[in-house]
Amino acid sequence: MLQIRNFISAIIPSGFLWRLTFLNTVIVGIATVILGWSLYNTACTLADAVGNMNAYSQQQYNNTLRTYLIIFLLLTITMGSLLHYYLTKHFIKPIRMLMKSTDQMKSGNFPEQVPVKKEDEIGLLIKKFNELVQQLNTNEQQRKRMVADLSHEFRTPLANLNGYLLALGNGDIRGDENLFRSLHQEAERLTSLVEQLDDLKEWEYLSSHNLYEKEETEITELLHQCVTMFDRKFHKTEIALHIDVTPAKLQLHREGIQQVLTNFLDNAIRYYQGPGDIYLKGEQLQAGYKISLESPGPTIEENEKEIIFERFHRLDPSRNRNTGGSGLGLAISKAIIERHGGEIGVQPKESTNTFWILLPIN
Fold this sequence. Notes:
- The chain has 11 helices and 7 strands.
- By secondary structure, it is of the alpha+beta class.
- Strand 4 (278-284) and strand 5 form a beta hairpin.
- The longest helix has 50 residues, at 121-170.
């Protein structure tokens, strides 16, 4: 049995196209032989029953009919196999293109999109493959950008700390209160950046695991509590804040939403460019409960509306840490709101920007 199996494996081609053609040829050949043999016997029987032929004529008739049937069988099998090979080769061409694209990905390159010509099973497979390649490419670009941003964010404060500490150790400079305060601020900046990265990682982890608890919260109380923490800043900067909030009780993660609102208020003060007041509004809509914060500031361009919520993205092209923050606040806010099943966005107008969140009521 094993020898027979090895013999069959040896005569069957290894390529998918050849194996499929070989299998089709065998099936068509068997069916054609059976059909031809049936027709041959039927014709011989009818000729013997109807005709006035002697034995020699009957034998000659049978031989002639057998010859034509054999020729017909050979032509049918040959033409059918060639046609099957051509059509199958055409049908699996997209699969070969997928294999080529996969080889490119294996070598570390992202291939171009494989064209989808038909909306059949192979077309759907190609479509899903293209989406996978696009997502992997996007993830890779984000990873490279994140590594570059992390390197940029840590390089300057670390260089400052190393330079000053080395100079202090060598006795090149003498430490005073201002110097030590500056070094402490650099250390705090690094600590804050690491903590925000931890927050972002935690919320992204929670987004894939149902591990956080919600509690019923009166949104008016929560908003006023967040505003109270900024009373001193509003008073110091002489910026007027107007609050118009519709009372509602929502199921939410209190500390997470508080972090989002705190980030909104902090950005409103940081990027404030008057004249004008800041308006905080909360309203219950059919789609959910919407909280918006409108403040005067540099108008956000349309192409910035989405990427502003990405990691380390700053509107300030100079990437100044004193005016641009760490570039993680809005990314963390987006992760928190998405974990609540809500939406987050910004609506720019002339000289004002309105950041908003939409939370589900139920």
